Every structure is written in structure tokens, then in C-alpha cells.
Amino acid sequence: MMSEKFDDSDMKIVGRPVRPAESGEALRFIEYTSKEHFNGNFRKAKALGANIVSAFSYSAAPEELEALIRSHGVEPTPDVVRQVRFLSVFSAQVAIETYLPSQLLSSVAMGELYDTLRLYSSAFYDDLAKSGAFSFYNMTLGSVTDVTAAVGRQFAALCGKPGDPALSALGQELHTLNLKAYRKAINGYAFV
Questions:
Q1: How far, CA to CA in Å, does 152 sit from each of 4, 97, 161, 166, 169?
Q2: DSSP helix/strand/coil, 35
């Protein structure tokens, strides 16, 4: 028998009322995710995320990339190539978030991108995770009107030469080219 001192039968739980799973919002989400699954968009988003990794999973820069870097008067040192790869991942994220039809599909694609990158290029994945490069790019993007110029400036700063016009121009061109290539790849998946 419980003593009166510890009787909590009259206690009430305080807080927000729990909404039943059948609420309109939950049902709409379930219907939406089912639709995206059955129309093939989830599969396409996962394939996009996995396949886009090939754009920056190289261990040595391809010749055409080295030529582009040199065309700006920049030497393709390991640190510059490292930053080029980081920028390519950032550009992929921007393209995926901008050009996919929903945030849910963008999340699926980005999750698969990172899982694939971690699986096939774990050293680069770890380097990217520790770098903080995305934080620097994201900090400038929210308050500027010329995003491409801001990305170029951040690229130069991440290369260790803030304000360097050649590196800024290279970063701008790379971001522009990346977005164009990623948009073309995304369009090729024909999301519905």
C-alpha cells in the first residue's frame, strides 16, 4: 500500500498537448513522402548525390582543371587544389538546394553525397569536415547581393591570400562553372 506522502494520483503532466499522428500536417507529410518515393524522386535524389561525388573525389587534379587554375595565373599547389575541391562540394550543395524540387529531396541527395564521399574518399571527407570552409562561404552569402563575387573572395581567403584578385577570379569562375555543370546533371535526372 502506498503512503499518502507519496501518492501522486492527482498529479498532472504539464506541457504542450501531444498532437495525434493523424493530424493534417502529419498526413500531408506522409502522403508527400509516399508520392516522392513512388514517383522515383527519392531514388533519383540518392543517385544524384552518389554520382555527383565524382566531380570532386579525384586525388590528383585533372589536366583541364590544372589548366583552368593556371589560366588565372595561379599555381595548382596541393592547397589550392584542396580548396578547389572544397568549393566544388559547396557548389554542389548550393545547386542541390537551389535546383531540386523540394528541401526533402535536397536533404536526401546531400545525405547520399556525404555518405558516398565518406565511403570512397574518407580522408577528403574528414578533411572537409574539419576545414570549416562551408562556414566561411555560408557567412558571406546571407548578406551580399553578388554571391559569386563573395564566393570568390572567400575562396581567396581560404587559399590564404585574402583579397588576391587572381584567386578571387578563379573562385568566381569555378563556382559559376560548377553550378552550371551541377544544374545540367540535376536536370538530367528529370525530377517530377
A1: 71, 20, 11, 9, 6
A2: helix
The amino acid that residue 112 corresponds to is E
CA distance 40 to 191: 8
Distance, in Å, from the CA atom of 125 to the CA atom of 116, rounded to the nearest integer, reads 9
* Half-sphere exposure in the Cβ direction for 150 (13 Å, CA): 14
CA atoms within 13 A on the CB side of 171: 29
pLDDT digits (tens, 9 = 90+) for 157-167: 999 999 999 99
Phi, psi of 19 (to 5 degrees): -85, 140
pLDDT, tens digit (0-9, with 9 covering 90-100), for 45-102: 999 999 999 998 887 889 999 999 999 999 999 999 999 999 999 999 999 999 999 9
Q: Which residues of 104-127 are buried (b: 16+ CB within 10 A; e: fewer)?
A: bbbebbbebbbebbeeebeebbee
CB 57 within 8 A of CB 117: yes
- The string of DSSP codes covering 49-110 is HHHHGGGT--SS--HHHHHHHHHTT----HHHHHHHHHHHHHHHHHHHHHHSS-HHHHHHHH
